[in-house]
Amino acid sequence: MTLKPLVIDKLVAKIPVIQGGMGIGVSLANLAGAVAREGGIGILSTAQIGYQEEMFEKSPLRANMDAIKKQFDKAKEIAKGGVVGFNIMAATFQYERYVKRCVEVGADVIICGAGLPVNLPELVEGSKTKIAPIVSSNKAAKVLLGLWKKRYNKTADFVVVEGPKAGGHLGFKADSMDESIENMDNELKEIIATVNAFGEEFNRTIPVIFAGGVYTRSDIDYYLSLGCSGVQMATRFVVTEECDAPESYKQSYIDAKEGDIGIIKSPVGMPGRAIKNQFTERIKHETIPIEKCRNCLSYKHCDRKTIPYCISQTLLNAVTKEPNHALVFAGSNAYRIKEKTTVRKIFEELTQAN
Ligand SMILES: Cc1cc2nc3c(=O)[nH]c(=O)nc-3n(C[C@H](O)[C@H](O)[C@H](O)COP(=O)(O)O)c2cc1C
């Protein structure tokens, strides 16, 4: 069977695959543009998106605002008419400014995770930008969509459900990860029922997209059979020619074995999935002083005085210095990647009819 396009209101992606946002510096214009060109949805991560800008050290916020436009325009050029959007963490310091800037530059979609984006509908009001929250539980889906309905009489354009096999920050408890993996299909079915109920109330279809551990075409077919309209994949796109991360970062994926991917404690207060290395060993028993605060997270999500290490610094180090001494986020399937490929080859494989 051929894959059906992903239809989000009037926005259409030929292939129902969204490339998950990867910060810092992993999903920028080259990767997002290439994915969009192949018919998927390419997503730029706004997390310190301007780290390569000259003014970044002096004024990270300004550098990030500038880079949002530069990276988006470049991705759109590469995409040749394809769909490009942003991933913004709701926990970002001055989150509202990031959302407004992404709308201003013409984002096709905005996907918000790492916290519940309670005022997102208000921030995109009057624009063509489609919005999606990332949720990991039915409870979160109900609370957020209920709130959007009550406050704004609006609903999501689509919903991304992120399961516990994903890379990066996870919306699950670290000590019950295996249980969460076992329960995820049931949770997903409940979320789909909740989202469909909101869809009926608003007389529209709200696509549900599953993320976390999706690797092959049969994985995609499986989630479509559960009632999803598409999938979000991130890890699979890291070791491609187009991915914006440096070679050393990609090499750490190639070198990783199954037992090398594990759960870490992030100062954001959520667990994260990453490649075990010298840095992840160090943070088990050491507090790493903050070299410089770049105000990446809101005060509610980062207590500058008590955090064990700076999340921004260590994610930046992973793309600017030696990844082995930094935090390399990766999904549970990263060990399956054995060699570098291209975005086109991945799409050729995923779109081959079973
Ligand atoms: C290196 C890396 C960085 C990530 N950074 C972010 C991020 O900044 N914000 C976010 O919402 N999700 C982030 N994620 C999660 C992905 O967007 C995606 O939902 C998830 O990894 C999907 O699972 P998969 O990697 O198994 O395909 C990241 C994932 C990886 C692997």
Short description:
The protein has 354 residues and is α/β, with parallel strands linked by helices. Helix content is 37%, strand content 16%. The longest helix is centred in the middle third of the chain and has 25 residues, at 177-201.
How would you sum up this structure, described in words?
There is one protein chain. The chain has 354 residues and is an alpha/beta fold. The protein folds into two domains: 6-245 and 337-351, Aldolase class I (TIM Barrel); 247-335, no CATH class. It contains eleven helices and 13 strands. The strands form three sheets. An eight-stranded parallel β-sheet has the order 3-11-10-8-7-6-5-4. A three-stranded antiparallel β-sheet has the order 9-13-12, with no helix packed on it. A two-stranded antiparallel sheet has the order 1-2. α2 (60-79) links the parallel β4 (41-45) and β5. α2 (60-79) runs parallel beside α3 and α5 runs parallel beside α6 (177-201). The longest helix is centred in the middle third of the chain and has 25 residues, at 177-201. The protein is globular, with a radius of gyration of 19 Å. The N and C termini lie close together (6 Å). The mean pLDDT is 95. It binds flavin mononucleotide. Flavin mononucleotide binds at residues 20-23, 26, 45, 47, 87, 89, 113-114, 134, 162, 165-168, 211-214, 232-236, 329-331, 333.
